[in-house]
Structure to design on (395 residues):
C-alpha cells in the first residue's frame, strides 16, 4: 500500500485552516470536474481530490491522519501500525457512494470508521488499547479520548475527555463495548485492541507466548515457572523438546465459556561459551555425542 | 435506454446517491427534478434522473450551490451531453 499525502493532493500547507482547504478543493473540483474538464486524467484526479477532501474536511479524520502521516511521504510503501487510531473518538457517518472508488490507503485507514455493525446514527466510536492482563482479570480503566474539532479560526484542535470504563473479564480483541448515553446523541462504542506486547500475543481466545528454555531443560525435560497474563504457572517441558515446538496449556487462555488455551512456543537458548570451563563442557559434549545438527537438513537439500 | 425494470423507487434513488428522502422530495416539488408518477410512492426514476441527482448533490456539496443553481448547471450539463451525443452520431467526434 502506498502512502498518500492528502495535503499535497490539495496543494495546501499542513497547518491550513478549514476555509483554505475548502477553497483549494473548490478550485480543483472546478478544474477537474469530469463533465467539463479538458484534462486527460480528470476523472482519476477528481477521485484523488475527493478522497483527500473527505479526510481533510473532517476534523476527526484529519486529526487521526495527521498523527499517522508525520514523517511519511507520498508514494512511500506504508502500513499503518496497529492501534494507530486508538484513542480518537469518531461519529457515525458514511462517505457516500464515491467512497467505493477511494484508494486502498483510504479504505485501510477509514473504511471501517463509517457504518459499523451495530452502530446507529448519533453513536460515537473509538478504539481503545488494553493490556492482555485486563482481559484475564477484568478491570476499571481510565480511558482518555481525543475529540477533534475546529476552533473559531477554523484550525484543527482537539479536546480530551476521560472516562471510567469497566473492562469485563474475558474481553477479546475486536469486541465492542457499548457505553450507553456517552455520545451527545447516542452511545459510545469502544472497540478493544490489545497493546502490542513483546511477550504475549492474543489470537481470539487463545494466547501465545515464547518460552525460553535451556538446552538441558529441553533435552532432559523440566518443570519451569511461566509468567503469563493471568499470573504464573508451572509447566512441564517434555524430554526431547525442540525450538519451534508449541506446548498447549488447556484453559489458560482468555477466560470465557469455554476458556481459550495458552500456547508456549519453545525457544532453546544456548548459554554463551564465555568461560574456559563452559568451553570444555561444550567440547566434551561435541566429542561424546558426535551430534550433527544439520543431518536431516542436508538430507532434505541433497 | 432504460427498461421498465431499471426504474428506481424513491428509496432506491436515495440509497444510490446518498441523499435523504426529503432532499429529493423538496427538489421535485420545486420543479428542479423530474419525477414520473402522481404520488411520492408512485414516483419512479430512470438512469438520467440518477445521474442528475448525483450531479446536483455534488454541486451543492462541493460548491455550496443553492439548489436552483445546481439545477441550472445540471441543465447545462445535460444539454452538453445531448450535443456531444449528436456530434458522435454525426461522426464529428
Amino acid at each position: 500500500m502506498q502512502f498518500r499525502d492528502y495535503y499535497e493532493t490539495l496543494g495546501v500547507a499542513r497547518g491550513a485552516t478549514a476555509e483554505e482547504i475548502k477553497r483549494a478543493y473548490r478550485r480543483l473540483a472546478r478544474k477537474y470536474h469530469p463533465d467539463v474538464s479538458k484534462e486527460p486524467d480528470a476523472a482519476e484526479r477528481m477521485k484523488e481530490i475527493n478522497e483527500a477532501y473527505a479526510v481533510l474536511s473532517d476534523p476527526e479524520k484529519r486529526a487521526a491522519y495527521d498523527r499517522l502521516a508525520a514523517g511519511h511521504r507520498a508514494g512511500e510503501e506504508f502500513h499503518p501500525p496497529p492501534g494507530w487510531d486508538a484513542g480518537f473518538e469518531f461519529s457515525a457517518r458514511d462517505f457516500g457512494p464515491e467512497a467505493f472508488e477511494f484508494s486502498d490507503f483510504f479504505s485501510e485507514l477509514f473504511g471501517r470508521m463509517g457504518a459499523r455493525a451495530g452502530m446507529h446514527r448519533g453513536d460515537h466510536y473509538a478504539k481503545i488499547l488494553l493490556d492482555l492482563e485486563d482481559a484475564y482479570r477484568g478491570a476499571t480503566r481510565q480511558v482518555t479520548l481525543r475529540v477533534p474539532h475546529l476552533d473559531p479560526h477554523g484550525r484543527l484542535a482537539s479536546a480530551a475527555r476521560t472516562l471510567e470504563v469497566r473492562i469485563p473479564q474475558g474481553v477479546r480483541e475486536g469486541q465492542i463495548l457499548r457505553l450507553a448515553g456517552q455520545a451527545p446523541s447516542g452511545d459510545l462504542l469502544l472497540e478493544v485492541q490489545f497493546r502490542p506486547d513483546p511477550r504475549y500475543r492474543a489470537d481470539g481466545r487463545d494466547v501465545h507466548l515464547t518460552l525460553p528454555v535451556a538446552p538441558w531443560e529441553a533435552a532432559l525435560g523440566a518443570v519451569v515457572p511461566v509468567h503469563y497474563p493471568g499470573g504464573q504457572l508451572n509447566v512441564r517441558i517434555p524430554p526431547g523438546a525442540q525450538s519451534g515446538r508449541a506446548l498447549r496449556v488447556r484453559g489458560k487462555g482468555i477466560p470465557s465459556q469455554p476458556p481459550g488455551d495458552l500456547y508456549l512456543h519453545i525457544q532453546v537458548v544456548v548459554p554463551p561459551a564465555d568461560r574456559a570451563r563452559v568451553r570444555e563442557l561444550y567440547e566434551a559434549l561435541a566429542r561424546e555425542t558426535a551430534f550433527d545438527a544439520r543431518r536431516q537438513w542436508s538430507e532434505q537439500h541433497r | 435506454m432504460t427498461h421498465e425494470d431499471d426504474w428506481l423507487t424513491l428509496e432506491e434513488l436515495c440509497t444510490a446517491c446518498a441523499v435523504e428522502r426529503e432532499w429529493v422530495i423538496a427538489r421535485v416539488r420545486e420543479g428542479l427534478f423530474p419525477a414520473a408518477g402522481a404520488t411520492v410512492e408512485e414516483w419512479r426514476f430512470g438512469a438520467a434522473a440518477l445521474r442528475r441527482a448525483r450531479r446536483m448533490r455534488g454541486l451543492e456539496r462541493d460548491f455550496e450551490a443553492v439548489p436552483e443553481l445546481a439545477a441550472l448547471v445540471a441543465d447545462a450539463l445535460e444539454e452538453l451531453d445531448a450535443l456531444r451525443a449528436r456530434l458522435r452520431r454525426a461522426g464529428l467526434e
Notes: The longest helix of chain A spans residues 42-56.
